[in-house]
Write a structure and sequence with these properties.
Elements lengths: L10 H28 L17 H4 L1 H18 L5 H30 L19 H24 L3 H6 L14
Helix pairs in contact: 1-5, 3-4, 4-5
Length: 179
């Protein structure tokens, strides 16, 4: 897998594309939280940025599952390009996202079957039994995003032995693109 262009020649670009997707998803969750807690919108009207013009998106378990799967696939595909400390942090993010993905799979199965856990009226994840969905997804996105960013920073600034093991040229490029 290390020979794939996504993990050598195009690793830097692939990381930036992936980061843009992750940040766009973050914007959705943060805007939804602002709509609820700062603007006082009722929960059913707080739908994030895309959910306002396309309300069905917020209620689509397929869309949520698809994003969780996309995140998991991205973390898996880009992992071989990381070495040393960066790989450890990327793997932490991957492990957390694997659990997050399973929670979304559980939600999707419930939506498809109409059979909900714990007698709930809507699809409910396991941790959602303890933490409301909006807050839970802010938490999940935080604990996936933070180690992912740590991994990217360490990857761009490797120790000499980590750089020697790298197949990509990410360490020779700036973390922030030049204007």
């Amino acid at each position: 897998m290390r020979s794939w262009a996504i993990n050598n020649r195009y690793h830097h670009l692939a990381l930036w594309v992936y980061l843009v997707i992750v940040v766009a998803h973050w914007a959705e969750h943060i805007s939804q939280a602002i709509q609820i807690y700062a603007l006082g919108w009722p929960l059913h009207e707080a739908r994030g940025v895309l959910g306002v013009p396309f309300p069905w998106l917020v209620h689509s378990e397929w869309m949520h599952y698809g994003y969780a799967l996309l995140m998991l696939i991205g973390l898996i595909l880009l992992r071989p390009g990381f070495t040393g400390r960066a790989r450890t942090w990327w793997t932490i993010s991957l492990g957390i996202q694997a659990w997050h993905h399973l929670e979304h799979l559980l939600l999707l199965i419930q939506a498809l079957t109409g059979s909900y856990i714990a007698g709930k009226a809507v699809p409910t994840s396991l941790i959602q039994l303890l933490i409301p969905r909006v807050e839970l997804h802010l938490f999940y996105n935080s604990i996936v995003f933070i180690p992912m960013v740590v991994a990217m920073v360490l990857h761009m600034r490797p120790r000499p032995e980590e750089r020697a093991a790298m197949d990509c040229k990410c360490a020779t490029r700036s973390l922030v693109p030049a204007r």
